[in-house]
Design brief:
Elements: E1 7-12, H1 16-28, E2 34-38, E3 54-55, H2 66-85, E4 89-90, E5 94-98, H3 104-117, E6 121-124, H4 126-132, E7 140-144, E8 148-150, H5 152-163, E9 166-169, E10 173-179, E11 183-188, E12 193-201, H6 207-213, E13 220-232, E14 241-244, E15 256-259, E16 265-268, E17 272-273, H7 287-295, H8 297-305, H9 307-318, H10 320-328, E18 339-352, E19 362-366, E20 369-374, H11 383-394
Parallel strand pairs: 1-2, 1-12, 2-9, 5-14, 12-20
Antiparallel strand pairs: 3-8, 4-8, 5-7, 6-7, 10-11, 11-12, 13-16, 13-17, 13-18, 14-15, 15-16, 19-20
Helix pairs in contact: 1-5, 1-11, 2-11, 9-10
């Protein structure tokens, strides 16, 4: 039987990871026909375009993990990519600040981890903190020199152009028919059917649903966490990037201060459960998606295990004064009137059945298919190496 293919590879998802994958495939194997299917009317409408724009150094991540390897490498590559293509960016460095004595051992551990990764790290006392950030207060801090900021939406758009892939917007995938001996057929919401030799699932907030459409049990479910931001009315209070010492028990970095490429300063995010995959505010509730989240055993196990942390995040979401108090730990001069609401983001957090929050990037292979099942922050930073990794896994599927 002869099968006619519309392309070699179908990529589901037009965020920065999907578009980086398309770019990597065509760069490594010119002539590879790639079609990207994106349900929105343009690229980078969700996690890629709704984050703080930070180019992460990789200092937080466990040595040997995909996050560590790809973030350290990806940070340098992202800066070089932005410079080469005229995309707004800046290598600012950042401060990670300890405000309590209990945080000092964790801060020292980050120094050691940074040195393991080959990241330039400088230890600071209170007076030296003021040299970088006059309004920031802390017991000690570290300065991480390779951190920066950029416009990730512009990066995604440029990757789409450079890849030479056909990017179809408004193309929501509703059905997948996979025949291991032949390939993959996908139907979109408008009835279009496309056939390919292989499929890559980079659907972000919907990646587990796409895996199920393909007939694969992802073993995880995406539990959406909304990250709410404010913008600082007095941006002059902050010169660069200021972070608290993270708690290693959670994948979230805590409320931090980020001066973007446009000069504005974002404050946040917190992390509260969302009632929809794209639940960017409290009013957005999608009963079927919420029911799916609540039906997953891991959701309830997270709630039991981390209810105190979650209660604090909810309190800061509902009370601007509580949020302001959290910011004052780092920036005592801030007032509630300085914080102006700005658009939120939603983190696509993969959760195992036992309630474990998947900590690393998660890429799984199936017949004719690659699923990217966990790619929250620092995936934008690491997107170029992630794209190459996925492309390396896809290419053998094109010869069978």
């Amino acid at each position: 039987m002869t099968t006619t293919y519309d392309c070699d590879v179908l990529v589901v998802g037009g965020g920065i990871v999907g578009l980086s994958t398309a770019y990597a495939l065509t760069q490594a194997s010119p002539g590879t026909r790639v079609v990207v299917l994106e349900k929105e009317s343009g690229p980078a409408r969700h996690q890629t375009g709704r984050n703080s724009g930070v180019i992460h150094s990789g200092i937080y991540y466990r040595p040997g993990s995909l996050k560590a390897r790809f973030a350290v490498r990806g940070a340098a590559e992202m800066v070089e990519f932005c410079a080469r293509h005229g995309i707004a960016h800046e290598v600012t460095g950042k401060l990670i600040v300890a405000t309590e004595r209990a945080e000092l051992p964790r801060l020292h551990a980050l120094v050691q981890r940074g040195r393991e990764h080959g990241i330039p790290v400088r230890e600071l006392g209170p007076a030296q903190i003021a040299e970088y950030e006059p309004e920031v207060r802390g017991l000690a801090a570290i300065h991480v020199g390779t951190t920066g900021v950029c416009d990730y939406a512009a990066v995604a758009a440029r990757l789409a152009e450079l890849s030479g892939a056909e990017v179809r917007y408004g193309a929501e995938v509703v059905r997948i028919d996979r025949r291991p001996a032949l390939g993959v057929a996908v139907r979109t919401a408008d009835g279009t059917v496309l056939r390919a030799r292989a499929l890559v699932n980079c659907a972000g907030l919907h990646c587990d649903r796409v895996a199920l459409l393909a007939g694969d049990d992802p073993g995880v479910r995406i539990v959406p966490f909304r990250g709410e931001y404010y913008e600082l009315a007095r941006p002059g209070l902050v010169k660069g990037l200021v972070y608290p010492v993270p708690d290693p028990a959670f994948p979230f970095l805590g409320v931090h201060l980020t001066r973007g490429v446009d000069g504005s300063v974002h404050v946040g995010p917190n992390a509260v459960p969302a009632a929809a995959r794209e639940g960017y505010d409290w009013r957005t509730v999608r009963p079927r998606e919420l029911a799916g989240t609540l039906a997953w055993p891991g959701t309830w196990r997270i709630a039991r295990r981390h209810w105190r942390y979650g209660a604090g995040e909810l309190h800061r979401s509902l009370s601007k004064h509580a949020f302001t108090d959290a910011v004052r730990r780092l920036l005592p001069a801030v007032e509630a009137a300085d914080l102006r609401p700005t658009p939120a983001g939603v983190r696509a957090q993969a959760v195992l059945r036992d309630g474990t929050l998947v900590d690393d990037f998660l890429i799984r292979e199936a017949p004719r298919t690659i699923h990217v099942l966990n790619a929250p922050s620092p995936a934008a930073t690491a997107s170029l190496p992630i794209g190459r990794e996925i492309a390396d896994r896809v290419r053998p599927l094109l010869t069978t």
